Amino acid sequence: MGKIIVDNVSVVYKEKKKSYQALKDVSFTIQDGEFVSIIGPSGCGKSTLLSVLEGILHQSSGHVYINDSEVLGTGTDRGVVFQSYSLFPWLSAKNNIVFGVHQKNKKLSKDELYAIADEYLEKVNLREFADKYPSQLSGGQQQRVAIARALAMDTEILLMDEPFGAIDPKNRTELQELLLKLWEGEKKNGEGKKKKTVVFVTHDIDEAIFLSDRIVMMASNPGHVFKEISVPSIRPRNRSDLFQTSSYVQLRNELVSLFYKDVAEKIDEEVVL
Known about the structure:
alpha/beta; six-stranded mixed beta sheet; four-stranded antiparallel beta sheet; globular
């Protein structure tokens, strides 16, 4: 299971005699197998929230639960993909995946580890690059390896912090399609594979609509949940068909309006001050 409950989470950063509140009373629930995107302007606390979910940052108040157990640190039930690829430069593409899988399951033999790495390199169309080092791969290829590593670890939950933000539009589109394909799973013996729970931080509204079951929009000063919106489009999704539907246009206009309403309110507050 991969149910996540965020209960009145606040984060205050303190530096010497100054303090800054990054999150205030953030609450929402993500169901097992749900794909949820978190969007909002820069500085609204998206990455801070993901760090709390990952367990590398402890909140100032509130609680986070995964499957009814409180999150008190990092855990092997969560895989993470960052924007900056985060591959070990001294390891090949295959060994980067092997390292991640070994951390999750130390009982696997060397042959089993390499078989899993090969399987996921095949899924991301990088089998022929297995022995290449990160410096020998393009940015899009490096991110494919990072995604393959996170998925190969077979964690219940996948946390993604703007993983496609620094990638060119063509590779970004391909990686979005790849992520959905792998998240939705492959049918085995006529039955669908269990979906992972995905928390996806992005600043791209179109990306959030295309990928998500639900969108959590955050506002800043301090960071808080502005609104939660369900994405009505059925799956599997066809990009060109989806972007031409009236429901997509309506949802996109609503999200853009909410985004700029928050920005306008922020500007008004600064003017008053």
